[in-house]
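Work Package 4 report. The design task specified in the project plan requires that, given a folded chain encoded as structure tokens, an amino acid be chosen for each position. We show below one input record used in the internal validation round.
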């Protein structure tokens, strides 16, 4: 049976493709999830995707992954930069955590340079646009097979 990977999307990512294509590209969140699912299928993994604009929903989703999902891939959106509840929830998850961002937050405004997710992530993929979602799934497959 396929191992389950929870893919989490934070606030405003549901608007991708509608604004700021120069920063985030023209693809929609649906496109990124579809790429992650297709990559996962090739590698014997299954993706469960959850997007929310509410911090507590994402914390609940991380709790719900405990003992059920083998790994988590997270683009926390702007919560990445200040939502310590996500940090604590991820710290309580046993399994690889891959943080992914479409843009490179370190090359943008100062307030985006801090990630509260990175200290509890196994690895981080930033600045590669939608390709990052494929690479995140490939990284998870490698980590789970090691
Ligand atoms: O680069 C990324 O993937 C980000 O996580 C995207 C977040 C941003 O706050 C992070 O610093 C980096 C923003 C997500 C979506 O923002 C949109 C806003 C308006 C229209 C479309 C997308």
């Amino acid at each position: 049976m396929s191992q389950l990977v929870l893919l989490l999307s934070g606030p405003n990512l549901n608007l991708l493709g509608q604004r700021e294509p120069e920063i985030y590209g023209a693809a929609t969140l649906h496109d990124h999830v579809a790429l992650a699912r297709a990559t996962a299928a090739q590698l014997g993994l299954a993706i469960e995707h959850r997007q929310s604009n509410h911090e507590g929903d994402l914390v609940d989703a991380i709790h719900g992954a405990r003992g059920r999902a083998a790994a988590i891939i997270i683009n926390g959106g702007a919560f990445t930069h200040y939502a310590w509840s996500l940090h604590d929830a991820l710290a309580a998850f046993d399994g690889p955590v891959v943080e992914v961002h479409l843009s490179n937050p370190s090359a943008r405004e100062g307030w985006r340079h801090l990630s509260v997710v990175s200290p509890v992530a196994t690895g981080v993929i930033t600045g590669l646009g939608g390709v990052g979602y494929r690479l995140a799934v490939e990284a998870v497959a490698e980590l789970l097979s090691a």
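The chain has one domain: 3-145. Validation will be extended to a larger panel in the next phase.
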